[in-house]
Amino acid sequence: MKSAALVHSMSAAIVVLALAAWLATGREAFTRWPNARLEAADAPVSESEQDLLGEIGIDAAPSAESAAFESRFAFGLVPSGADPAHLLSLATTIALAALLSGGVLVAARIRRATDS
Amino acid sequence: MQNRCSRIAILLLSVAVITPITASHALAAAPPARAEEPSVPDELAKQGTVYHTISGRQAQVTFTSDAPLQNIVGKSNAVVGYAVSGVADAPAKLVGARWVMPVASLATGIPLRDEHLAGDHWLDAAKFPTIEFSLEKVEDIAATKSGADFASFTATLVGTMEMHGVKKPMRVEKAKLSFLKASERTASIAPGDLLFIQCTYEVKLSDFGVVNGDVPGKVADAIRLDQILRLTTATVAPGTESVKPAEDGTATK
Predict the structure, then answer these.
(1) Contact assignment for B27 to A88 by CB distance below 8 Å
(2) pTM higher than 0.90, yes or no?
(3) What is the C-alpha to C-alpha distance for residues B113 and B204, in angstroms, rounded to an integer?
(4) Which residue of B75, B111, B178 is in closest CB contact with A57?
(5) Domain of A84?
(6) How distant is the Cα of A105 from the closest Cα of chain B, in angstroms?
(7) At a CB cut-off of 8 Å and minimum separation 6, what does A44 contact?
(8) In chain A, how many domains are there?
(9) Averaged pLDDT in 10-residue chunks for chain B of 253 residues
(10) Which residue in A40, A66, B63, B139 is a FRET match for B69, CA 20 to 30 A apart?
(11) The domain at B33-244 falls in which architecture?
(12) Nearest-CA neighbor of B65 among B230, B169, B165, B210?
């Protein structure tokens, strides 16, 4: 019985921690990880290059109106892909915690049924 | 029974802890989406100066889908390819050019969306791993600016785009082309003479056989593309982002 209570407590703690992680990392819809390629794509053009491009008539930031991508970790509400790293999310963590507690409850029920 | 519960709990917790750790390692080890630079045909190389596209830096292609339900912006900095300039007094009359962009290099900031984009319901990267543009001719050339070490032009690039296994003729109007002689200022960008090509144009997904129920509600059929390509006469090592000066030390032919 003590173990079951421990498992339920752990499940609750996991959910609380996951919720805290989601809130602390910006309440994003999807999980994200730092991405070197996106960082490079959004790297600002150096001042000297910008001057040079301006001089020759090239707009250094043709897509300036498009938002730069954030290259950082965010614990998302739902998974952002099939890649294992992107499966991590508040939803999957809650599912995992529910599985944990559910497994204990089912095991207890089976035990009671076999005892009786 | 208590032991069994404890074992289940420990097992599930281990999975919960180990999965993200191993997954993040797997992610770090995943090779970035790249394509090999197409080789320049000898007959083209003989006709002018060969410029190689510098990839792996700032976004070269930015696509925007402006649909009623959502806006999607994606970028790629993995475009590789070459352009061969025309004769010295008409460099903008390119004698040839070809660019290749790996579909898997397109990033929208949401990995799940990137997976969908490269999936078989959209661009189908497994079957058609690259999007290519081959230049056939340059029209409507007009000089716009020039200086001691540069010359800028606007022009219409006429060629063929291949996407999703479909080839379509394409005209890219009002493209800007700027040729710069190697100097101290250009060296901070790359060694060698430089060529910048900037253009904005639209492609229709339906023209390339990309048909999906999310078009036009969530994804626009007409996708706007903003491109800025930096090219250099220095050689670009295949599959890398490094640039080195041409072996003969000269920038032009």
Answers:
(1) no
(2) no
(3) 19
(4) B178
(5) 2-115
(6) 9
(7) none
(8) 1
(9) 55 52 45 78 93 91 93 92 90 96 91 90 94 96 94 97 97 96 91 95 96 94 95 72 48 35
(10) A40
(11) Beta Barrel (2.40)
(12) B210
